[in-house]
């Protein structure tokens, strides 16, 4: 990766691209929440299941293009590509981290 990211975020993107689900849940705190496509997923197991399903079924690959810390969050801009209509698409990932674990992740279309 081109940017200095907290370890949990770097691991999140690395294992998402390699489809290594064994490490994905370990990136998240027990009370973590993922907001994606209008839905909320609570806890590492639910978050892992959603990400693995989407990434594996659509053969998603993520390319991080920018990252900046802002208002206590790490905002990562990435382009995802895969077997889905509209590929590739730019997304903003809003992360909050506590004790080296992701506590909140909100994924939205870039610039929204």
Automatic annotation (TrEMBL):
SUPFAM superfamilies named among the record's database cross-references: NTF2-like
InterPro entries linked to this entry: NTF2-like_dom_sf
Domain of life: Bacteria
Name of the protein in its database record: Nuclear transport factor 2 family protein
Species the sequence originates in: Sutcliffiella rhizosphaerae
């Amino acid at each position: 990766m081109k940017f200095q990211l907290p370890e949990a975020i770097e691991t999140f993107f690395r294992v998402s691209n390699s489809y290594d689900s064994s490490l994905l849940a370990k990136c998240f705190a027990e009370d973590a929440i993922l907001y994606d496509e209008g839905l909320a997923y609570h806890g590492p197991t639910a978050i892992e299941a959603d990400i693995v399903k989407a990434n594996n079924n659509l053969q998603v690959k993520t390319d991080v293009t920018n990252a900046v810390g802002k208002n206590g969050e790490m905002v990562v801009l990435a382009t995802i590509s895969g077997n889905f209509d509209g590929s590739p698409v730019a997304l903003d990932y809003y992360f909050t981290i506590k004790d080296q674990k992701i506590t909140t992740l909100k994924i939205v279309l870039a610039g929204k």
